[in-house]
Amino acid sequence: MPSTETVTPATAQSGTDDEEHLVRGYAGRLLVAVSVGWLAIQSGRLVLSPMLPAISADLGISDAQAGFAFTTLWGLYAVLQFPSGRLSDALSRKTLLVAGLGLSAVGFTAVAAAPSYAFLLAGAAVLGTGAGLYPTVARALVSDLYTAKQGRAFGLHTASGDLGGVASAGLAAAVLAYATWRAAFVPVVVVVVAVLVALHVWSREDYVVEARSLAVRDTVGRLLVGSRFRWLLVAYTLYAFTWQATAAFLPTFLETGKQFAPFVGQVAFGVLFGVGAVVKPTAGWLSDSVSRRALTVGALVLGATALVGVVLADSPAVAVAAVAVFAVGLLAFPPVMQSYLMDAFPDGSAGGDLGAMRTVYIGVGALGPTYVGTTATLANYDLAFWGLVVALLAAAGIVARVT
Q: Which GO molecular function annotations are given, in alphabetical order (predicted)?
């Protein structure tokens, strides 16, 4: 007689496989599935930026309206990091992952079919909710599946988001050349639904849907009261502040601030994501055998040093080369630090604790573009990016002291 015992995140991942395979076996299948899902979600979200002029022209919306739609999407995405992780600890990873993928598919479809700004805004809200439910839970699942190869697994998984950034650029270029902007979301929805089905079939966990407390007070106590986690949260926030500011304004800095041709900014932006897709799994692999403290501090210092090179660059070739080195340092940080945190968090609350940290550092980090834009308006881009150099060095100092 089949067992009716509820399968929890802590027990569902233990299988008969003796080795932690990265692309085969139970763990490997789930790692590939959640990584492809993250690639698709990132592709669909990031493709909105290069297609924004076409979307605005088609729907007749202003820059302010478009900005509010982005704020809605990213705001919901940030807010839901904590509750998604906490609920995945209390219910099951599978429940939250499938819900996130389902809502993302609905959101992408609504955005693609939107006949007016109101429908676009509603689609962005659904998409932000679905996307917000997914990444923290996916990282918690990776932590469940891997121990000896956890750094490598985190590296491969986080690199899938950078591949999504590269894919979004190619997808936007192809769609705008041969079709309408709405067509860009068709392959995204197909892949998201395929991953949903794969997780439904492959995961050994049960679906669990019931009311559970978010235990906000307990989480705040673990992370902020008398804990080194509060300082690591500050460091990660400084990192996120720099990353989001750079991702938003690097092409504009090179074009407007340095008077380089627009093509230089486009190439540099592609290099940023392309290098990240290689660096993240490499850094994760190294973190399984090298001190994670040394890797994170070294990555942040390298990123800060290379960013100095970007600010001082007086030719396109030097600027792009400096961006490549900057990407090595900046994007080596997440897989190593996230692996460190998942090892340090209590087993029963790891998803919620990571989600709470992500809510804070993504939310506060979202102020990075505002900082750069405001500083560039009042002074210049050089001063704005010097501030980002200071932020990375401060983050490196904090990590060196508390880990």
A: transmembrane transporter activity
Mean pLDDT of the 260-274 span: 82
The answer to whether position 140 is within a domain reads yes
For residue 314, give the 3-state DSSP assignment: coil
Q: By the 8 A CB rule, do 238 and 253 touch?
A: no
Q: What is the pTM of this model?
A: 0.70
Which secondary structure element, helix H or strand E, spans residue 152, and what is its range? helix 150-178
CATH number of the domain encompassing residue 137 = 1.20.1250.20
* CB of 392 closer than 8 Å to CB of 242: yes
Residue 8 lies in a domain: no
Residues 161, 26 share a domain? yes
Q: What's the CA gap between 109 and 248, in Å, rounded?
A: 25
Count the neighbouring beta carbons within 10 Å of the beta carbon of residue 379. Answer: 10
Shared domain for 246 and 292, answered yes or no, is yes
The total domain count for the chain is 2
Each residue's pLDDT tens digit, 358-389: 788 888 887 887 788 888 888 888 999 999 99
